[in-house]
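We treat protein structure as text, and this decision shapes the records that our systems exchange. We quote a single record here, exactly as it is kept in our systems:
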Amino acid sequence: MKISLLHATRNRPAQANHAKATWLALAQSPADIEHIYAVDPDDQTWTELDQSSQIVTTCRPNMGCVAAWNLAALWSDGEIMVQMSDDYTPPMFWDRIILSRLNTDMSQVLAVSDGHRTDHLLCMAILTRHRYREQGYTMFHPRYRGVFSDDHYTAMAYGQGRVVEARDVVFVHAHPMWTGANIDDTYERQNAPERYRDGQRVFASLVPAEYQHWPRKPLPEPMLDLRYDAVKDVQTAVLDD
């Protein structure tokens, strides 16, 4: 059973290649993993990406990560689709875990932890192909460029009763917001104030009012050692094995 990793990236070939290698090294069955890079046409670093993966290109420059993820989804054929970014690290045998939690004959999304958040936001899109079809053959609504696309995805999934809770499963998110690392141009572009204003406006116009208040009650604090030097040590040990 194939899982598709849909990897939006921009101007970070070394980080993107390292992320891909880490995910495949931590999979139980890497031969059953389909990995697809999605990039913008003005990203001149795409030739430095691992060419063993399929690489797809959005139709216009600087379209945003949502367009990239949606394009990668169109080219995928896995029964389960996973949103991938440069800054997430999965748990050991993450593929086996996902397959054990989702029923690929149903329209379902998996709710995992990023090791930080204590609300119900679905921080990583993990969904069956049946759910992808139900969403109109998009991973995220195409009206978004980045921020608030996950709020929309979360609101609709909870509102329509498609969520399978798995907060015990942790995909560590090494975002500068959590790690204190420097913010590069890609992060800065994605998190610009105008992006948040636009995303909030689109969310309010598209999501039915009864779905806009998806569960926001606090979840238990993640039980995880989030020292990032420890996470990097794990990555290095797996890749060097």
User: Anything to note?
Assistant: The two ends are 26 Å apart (CA to CA). Residues 3-240 form a domain with the Spore Coat Polysaccharide Biosynthesis Protein SpsA; Chain A fold (CATH 3.90.550.10). The first strand starts at residue 3 and ends at 8. Confidence is low (pLDDT under 50) at residues 223-232.
